[in-house]
Write a structure and sequence with these properties.
The structure holds two protein chains of two kinds. By secondary structure, chain A is an all-alpha fold. Helix content of chain A is about 50%, strand content about 0%. In chain A, α1 crosses α2. Chain A is globular and about 65 Å long. In chain B, strands 1, 2, 6, 7, 8, 9 and 17 form a seven-stranded mixed sheet that branches. Chain B has a six-stranded antiparallel sheet with strand order 5-11-12-13-10-16, covered by helices on one side. Chain B has a four-stranded mixed sheet with strand order 4-3-15-14, with helices on one face. In chain B, α6 packs across α13 and α7 packs across α12. Chain B contains 13 helices and 17 strands. The radius of gyration of chain B is 22 Å and the shape is globular. Chain B is of the alpha/beta class. Classes of the chains: A mainly alpha, B alpha/beta. At the A-B interface, α1, α2, α8 and α9 of A face α3, α7, α10 and α11 of B. The complex binds flavin-adenine dinucleotide (FAD) and iron/sulfur cluster (SF4).
C-alpha cells in the first residue's frame, strides 16, 4: 500500500503525516465548508481582510506557529512562519476540518503537558533552547498530533495561497517553484543549448 | 434558476437535444477516452447518438493549478468518499474503503480521464498482441493472444495521431512499430530531465527518444499550442492543448447536429427485453430522478472499473451472474500496469515544474526477454512527478530521510534540481484480480460500490524491480548527485483500468468479440479500457482510442447492414 502514484499521497506518507486513526478519519471526512473557507482565505490573501484566527486562541496559535517553525524552520530563507502556515491550519480547523478541531486542541494540550512533565516549569516549546526543543520533539514525533501538525504545516507552506497559508507564495519561492500560466524554453540549465532544432 | 444551473446550461454542448423516449441509434455510456471517439465517429457516420456522462461538463475556466483542491477536495468528481470503492489484496480478505485515495482513480467529467491524464501516448508494439504465442503460458496468469493484430490496428493508431492530435518524431524510437504516417506535430521542446535522461541512456548504450504526447506542440486543428505551464498530470489543461476528448472529439461529435452529450446522467442499469436485446439504459439525473433513455443499441465506455460494475448491476434472470457474463470473465483480468520511481537531483537547476511532464522515453526493455527469467517488459521516461505540496509530503522516497527540521528543509529546496526516472511495466492478466460489487459498502447513490481485488503477479514484481534497477543506472550515468528509490511494493491504487471485459473469439473465455459486440447480447457493445486483452507497458490510452476508432467503424458497418 505504499506506492506513490501520479502525485497522489501514498498511505505510508499519509500515515507518516497523521499517525494513524485520527489522521485517517480527518482525511476520510467530507470537507463541507471548503468553498467558503477558500473564499475567506482568498480575501485575506488579497489583503481585503486582516489575517484573523477563527478557532485557535492567540496563545494556542503561538504554540502551533512555534511548532511549525521546527518543522520548516526559518534560516536565510522563509520557513513555515513567514508562509503563515498557522493561518492555513487555523482556517482548516475553523472550517473544513472543523469536526476534528477539538481533537487537535486535545492533542495540543497533551503536547503541552508532556513538555511540562519533562521540563519542569516550561509551558511552551519556544522557551527551550533549540537543541533541547529538537530533542523533545523527537520523543513526540510519532504522536498523531505531531504528525497532523506536520502535514498541515507542509500544506500550509506549499499549498495554493488561496487557502490562507503560503503567504505571497513564500513557501513556493523557498523551494524554488513559481506558478505561472506560461513558460518558454529553455527551462533549466541542462536544456539551455538544446533548443533550435525541430522541437 | 440557480447560478450553478445557468452555468451548467451555458456549458452544455451545442449539439442536438433528444428526449428520453426518442429511440436513438446509439446510447453511449461514458464520454471519456473511448466514449468521446465513438460518439464523434458514429455521429459523423450519420447515426443519432446520446452520450450519458455521470460527471459535469467542466471547461478551461474550471481548471487550475491548485493541488489542494485537486487531490484533497477531489475537484474532478473523483472523490473516494462518495463512490465508496473498496480494496482487498486477495479474495479471502474482507475489502475496506481507503478514505484517502480510491483504488480506481478516474475523472468523472465530460471527457473522462482524458481530461486530467498526463498524455503519454505510446502505441503498443506488434508483440503486445501476440504474447500468448510469443511467450507462452505463465503459471498463475491467462496470457493469451489478442484476436486482432497490430497491423489491423495501425490505421486507427494513425487516426488517433492525426484526428486527436499527437506530437512526436517518427523514426526516433529504434523499436518503433511500423507506422503508415509520421506524427502530425513535432515533439514538445526537450526539458532538462530529457537531456539528462538522454545522456544517461547513451552512456548505458540505450536510446532515449522524444516522448509521443497527446499535446499540441504547435497550433493544431483550431487549438492553441501548449504554453508549458507544467500542470498536465492530474489537472485539466487551461489552454485546450492537451488532446482530451473534451476539446477534440466531443465538440466535433456535437457539431454534426446528431449527437447529444448529456452530463450529470449516471447510468445505473442496462435494460433488456424478453428476447435478450437491450432497449436502452436507466440513469439518474442531477436530482437523482430516474430516467430511461431508449436506444437501438447501447455501447458501454464507462472504463475498466465502471463498465463491469454496470454489467453486475444489470443482472437479471437471464443473466444471474451479471449481464453479458455467460463466460464469467466480466470483471476479471484487471490489469493496473506496474510503476517504479527513482528520484535524482543534480548540481544545477532543471526546473522540471515547467512544461509537460515527460519529454524523453526509452523502450530498450519493452520486449519480454527469457534471459531475465520472468515474463514482462516496460518503458522508462524522465519526468516531474510531484507538484510542490506532494513534493513536501513524499518527494524523497525513503522513510529514513529527514522529514522535519533544517535537514528536511534542505531536501525541500532540492526541488528545482530534481527529476524522476519513471518505469512503466506489464501486468499479467490474472483471473482473481478483479472488479466486483462490494457486498456491504454502497456509494452515496445507494448502489453497491466497486470492490477491487488485486495482487501483482510475482513476474510483475520482478519486472518492476528490474526496471527500477535500470532507472537507477540511467540516473547515475546522467551524473546525478543524489539518487533515491521509492520502494517497489504491491499496488493498491491505479489509474489504468484494463482487461475487465476482455476481447476474444471464444464466448466461453471472453466478453466481447473482435468487433466489440458482447457475445451474449447482440445489440450491446463494450469499448474502453476493459476491452484490452493484455496490458501493454503502461500508457494504454492511445490503444483504447485506436480501438474506439476501429470499433466505431465496425459497429457502424454492421448497423448499416442491418446486422444489429
Ligand atoms: C492522473 C492520471 C494520469 C494518466 N496518465 C496517462 C498517460 O500519460 N497515458 C495514458 O495512456 N493513460 C494515462 N492515464 C489513464 C487514462 O486516463 C485512461 O486509460 C483512459 O482515460 C481510460 O479511458 P476509458 O475510455 O476506458 O475511460 P475514462 O476515460 O475513465 O472514461 C469513462 C467515462 O465514463 C463515465 N462513467 C463511468 N460510469 C458511468 C455511469 N455509470 N454513467 C455515466 N457515465 C459513467 C466516467 O465518468 C468517465 O467520464 C492517466 C490517468 C490518470 C488518472
Ligand atoms: S503544460 Fe501544456 S498541455 Fe500541459 S496543462 Fe500546461 S498548457 Fe496544457
Amino acid at each position: 500500500m505504499e506506492e506513490p502514484l501520479f502525485g497522489l499521497p501514498s498511505r505510508r506518507d499519509f500515515l507518516r503525516a497523521s499517525g494513524g486513526a485520527v489522521g485517517w478519519t480527518v482525511l476520510a471526512a467530507r470537507f463541507p465548508g471548503a468553498a467558503q473557507a477558500s473564499q475567506k482565505a482568498r480575501r485575506i490573501a488579497a489583503g481585503e481582510l486582516p489575517p484573523a484566527l477563527g478557532f485557535l486562541s492567540p496563545s494556542e496559535a503561538a504554540e502551533v506557529e512555534a511548532l511549525s517553525a521546527f518543522i520548516i524552520p526559518t534560516d536565510d530563507t522563509p520557513g513555515a512562519v513567514e508562509a503563515g502556515a498557522v493561518y492555513f491550519i487555523d482556517g482548516a480547523l475553523t472550517e473544513f476540518m472543523q469536526p476534528w478541531a477539538e481533537t487537535f486542541r486535545d492533542g495540543l494540550i497533551e503536547f503541552g503537558e508532556d513538555l511540562t512533565k519533562t521540563h519542569t516549569g516550561v509551558t511552551s516549546i519556544s522557551e527551550l533552547a533549540e537543541a533541547d526543543a529538537v530533542a523533545f520533539l523527537r520523543t513526540v514525533e510519532d504522536t498523531s498530533f505531531f504528525r497532523l501538525c506536520w502535514m498541515l504545516t507542509v500544506w500550509g507552506t506549499l499549498a495554493d495561497p488561496a487557502y490562507g497559508g503560503n503567504r505571497d507564495g513564500a513557501g513556493w519561492s523557498m523551494i524554488g517553484f513559481e506558478d505561472r500560466h506560461a513558460w518558454h524554453p529553455p527551462f533549466g540549465h541542462y536544456d539551455a543549448d538544446a533548443h533550435g532544432g525541430d522541437e | 434558476m440557480k447560478r450553478r444551473d445557468l452555468l451548467r446550461l451555458g456549458r452544455a454542448g451545442a449539439g442536438k437535444r433528444y428526449r428520453d423516449r426518442d429511440e436513438v441509434d446509439f446510447v453511449i455510456v461514458g464520454s471519456g477516452a473511448a466514449g468521446g471517439v465513438l460518439a464523434r465517429e458514429l455521429a459523423q457516420a450519420g447515426f443519432s447518438v446520446v452520450v450519458l456522462e455521470q460527471g459535469p461538463r467542466l471547461t478551461e475556466a474550471d481548471f487550475t493549478h491548485d493541488e489542494y483542491s485537486r487531490w484533497v477536495q477531489w475537484s474532478m468528481g473523483d472523490d473516494p468518499r462518495d463512490n465508496g470503492q473498496t480494496f482487498r489484496r486477495t479474495e479471502s480478505e474482507r475489502a475496506s474503503v481507503n478514505p484517502v485515495a480510491p483504488p480506481a482513480i478516474y475523472a468523472r467529467t465530460v471527457g473522462g480521464s482524458s481530461v486530467h491524464f498526463t498524455a503519454n501516448f505510446w502505441r503498443f508494439h506488434p508483440s503486445d498482441f501476440a504474447e500468448g504465442t510469443l511467450w507462452g503460458s505463465v503459471p498463475g496468469a491467462d496470457l493469451v493472444d489478442w484476436p486482432i493484430t497490430y497491423d489491423e490496428l495501425e490505421p486507427y493508431y494513425t487516426k488517433v495521431d492525426w484526428e486527436v492530435g499527437v506530437s512526436g518524431r517518427a523514426g526516433a524510437n529504434p523499436y518503433e512499430p511500423r507506422r503508415s504516417r509520421p506524427y502530425p506535430m513535432p515533439p514538445l521542446p526537450v526539458k532538462s530531465s530529457g537531456v539528462l535522461f538522454e545522456k544517461g541512456c547513451r552512456e548505458m548504450g540505450w536510446t532515449a527518444f522524444p516522448a509521443p504526447m497527446a499535446i499540441t506542440s504547435q497550433p493544431y486543428r483550431g487549438r492553441a499550442g501548449c504554453v508549458h505551464c507544467g500542470f498536465c498530470m492530474g489537472f485539466g489543461c487551461e489552454m485546450r492543448a492537451k488532446s482530451s476528448t473534451l476539446v477534440t472529439m466531443i465538440p466535433e461529435a456535437e457539431s454534426t447536429g446528431r449527437c447529444e452529450v448529456r452530463p450529470e446522467s449516471r447510468v445505473v442499469g442496462v435494460e433488456l427485453d424478453r428476447a435478450g436485446r437491450t432497449t436502452g439504459v436507466r440513469y439518474l439525473d442531477a436530482s437523482r430522478t430516474e430516467h430511461l433513455q431508449r436506444g437501438k443499441a447501447v455501447i458501454l465506455s464507462a472504463n475498466g472499473a465502471e463498465t463491469p460494475r454496470l454489467l453486475f448491476l444489470s443482472e437479471s434472470n437471464q443473466f444471474p451472474n451479471g449481464l453479458a457474463n455467460s463466460s464469467g470473465a466480466v470483471g476479471r483480468y484487471l490489469m493496473f500496469n506496474g510503476q517504479t520511481l527513482v528520484g535524482a537531483s543534480f548540481e544545477h537547476e532543471l526546473n522540471e515544474f515547467k512544461s509537460v511532464q515527460v519529454t524523453r522515453v526509452m523502450h530498450d526493455f519493452y520486449e519480454a526477454d527469457p534471459e531475465r527469467g520472468f515474463y514482462g517488459g516496460g518503458g522508462i521516461d524522465a519526468r516531474i512527478f510531484y507538484h510542490p505540496m506532494f513534493w513536501g509530503m513524499e518527494g524523497f522516497g525513503s522513510r529514513d530521510d529527514p522529514w522535519w527540521g533544517s535537514d528536511y528543509k534542505k531536501l525541500l529546496r532540492e526541488y528545482p534540481r530534481s527529476m524522476y526516472v519513471n518505469g512503466h511495466t506489464t501486468s499479467l492478466p490474472v483471473a482473481t484480480n478483479s472488479i466486483t460489487l462490494d457486498p456491504r459498502v454502497r456509494d452515496t447513490w445507494g448502489y453497491p460500490a466497486i470492490r477491487v481485488t488485486y495482487r501483482d503477479h510475482p513476474d510483475d514484481m520482478s519486472m518492476m524491480r528490474f526496471l527500477q534497477d535500470r532507472s537507477v543506472e540511467i540516473a547515475e550515468a546522467a551524473g546525478a548527485k543524489r539518487v533515491w528509490r521509492h520502494p517497489v511494493v504491491e499496488a493498491s491504487i491505479t489509474a489504468h483500468l484494463l482487461g475487465t471485459c476482455r476481447m476474444g473469439t471464444d464466448p466461453a473465455t471472453s466478453v466481447i468479440d473482435p468487433d466489440h459486440r458482447t457475445h451474449d447480447v447482440p445489440n450491446l457493445f463494450i469499448c474502453d479500457g476493459s476491452s484490452l486483452v493484455t496490458s501493454g507497458r503502461g500508457q494504454p490510452t492511445m490503444t483504447i482510442m485506436a480501438l474506439a476508432f476501429r470499433a466505431a467503424e465496425r459497429i457502424g458497418e454492421r448497423a448499416r447492414r442491418g446486422e444489429i
